[in-house]
Write a structure and sequence with these properties.
Blueprint lengths: L3 H11 L2 H10 L4 E2 H5 L6 H13 L3 E6 L2 E6 L2 H38 L9
Antiparallel strand pairs: 1-3, 2-3
Length: 122
């Protein structure tokens, strides 16, 4: 598993809708940076800044061929983040279930300790 800093970089990269859209596009295969930037209503420089965040998170690999830059998606950091999230979910589910069990037991104990009031009149 990668270090917490790598997880932070992955989550930071995934936090932005433009970067998620870039990854969605790259999930269909390698593409040129200029092709990737075309559908976005922003400058190529702005798209490049998003790409650099994705590269720091190791979610994107750049390949140069002459003057052309090609990008491809690397799923491993996302898979690691998903495993971390699943571990956290499992941990909290177990802890919340234990708390629920404890509270249910306390409710049963309190109910059995109360004097019976059935059939009494005041």
């Amino acid at each position: 598993m990668r270090t917490p800093n790598h997880l932070d970089q992955t989550l930071l990269a995934l936090a932005d809708p433009t970067r998620r859209a870039i990854l969605q596009r790259l999930s269909t295969g390698e593409t040129r940076v200029t092709e990737l930037a075309r559908p976005f209503a922003m400058s190529l420089n702005a798209v490049s800044k998003h790409i650099r965040v994705l590269e720091r998170a190791k979610l994107v690999r750049r390949r140069r061929e002459g003057r052309e830059h090609f990008l491809s998606f690397i799923p491993k950091p996302m898979d690691e983040a998903a495993r971390w999230m699943e571990a956290q979910r499992s941990n909290w589910t177990a802890r919340l279930q234990a708390l629920d069990d404890l509270l249910q037991e306390e409710d049963r104990a309190a109910a059995s300790a109360r004097p019976a009031t059935k059939g009494r009149t005041r």
